[in-house]
Write a structure and sequence with these properties.
Helix content: 40-55%
Number of helices: 9
Shape: rod-shaped
Structural class: alpha+beta
CATH class of the largest domain: Alpha Beta
Length: 246
């Protein structure tokens, strides 16, 4: 636009070069947006965000009319007019992209969701699928960890995980002046029970023994199934009363 606020270029062709027509003298950026025009004149270059839209603007220096290379241009005042031009990019708040410059962020989010329903739906579905996959992956890792560390039937530590835990506990407790007691348990007659009553009865016997062991241990203690009918019970800081109850 020119220095008087008239549009030189506008997407609405009826507003272009209005200063050249008497019936269009009132059609100008200056008249439609007086607050924005005052700000642009005062700053010459920058950006502005108002209730009408977002504006970025910059002054354009005209060519030097006294330059020898422009001497051949006739009636240059008619073509360029007086003063400098100002390039203004305006994005209306009512336009497709105008909502992106809304200072009301809650309203901005609502408008984006309203106008981009399909995109929002796709993102929501993708997020749900990703969450499900992450949850399934976490559950799978926990199951793998459980199967790799605990005996499937009794729920106590298996040989590998149990000996690893024993080594760690021994190092930690002894270094702090504590002590560890280890009790070895072998279920006598398990083979006879399996042969006479079947493996289900033998498994029930094992579970009964494990339940009895857990009943007389505290949280800091743990049980290791070494294999078959052999178990280790690890007591941390074992006291006399507990030893008598085992």
């Amino acid at each position: 636009m020119d220095s008087n606020g008239y549009w030189i270029y506008n997407t609405n062709k009826d507003k272009e070069w209005a200063f050249m027509y008497d019936e269009k003298k009132d059609i100008s950026f200056k008249n439609e947006y007086p607050k924005e025009w005052s700000y642009i004149l005062a700053n010459q270059e920058g950006t502005l965000n108002t209730e009408n839209g977002f504006y970025t603007f910059s002054s354009i220096m005209q060519i030097d009319k006294d330059s020898s290379r422009n001497k051949k241009l006739e009636n240059i005042d008619i073509v360029f007019g007086e003063g400098n031009w100002i390039a203004v990019l305006a994005i209306s708040k009512n336009s497709k992209y105008g909502i992106l410059f809304d200072n009301n962020y809650s309203e901005l989010i609502l408008n984006i969701l309203k106008n981009q329903k399909l995109v929002f739906l796709i993102i929501s579905i993708a997020s749900m699928v990703f969450s499900i996959l992450m949850t399934m992956n976490k559950i799978s890792k926990e199951k793998i960890k459980c199967f790799s560390e605990y005996d499937e039937m009794t729920g106590v530590l298996n040989r590998r995980a149990g000996l690893h835990s024993l080594n760690k506990q021994y190092t930690d407790i002894v270094s702090n002046g504590g002590g560890i007691s280890i009790c070895f348990i072998d279920i006598n007659g398990l083979k006879s029970v399996n042969d006479a009553l079947g493996h289900e009865a033998g498994n029930e016997l094992i579970m009964t023994v494990v339940k009895g062991i857990k009943k007389h241990t505290k949280k800091s203690d743990f049980v290791i199934r070494m294999g078959g009918d052999e178990f280790l019970v690890i007591f941390a800081n074992l006291d006399i009363e507990q030893a008598e109850n085992v």
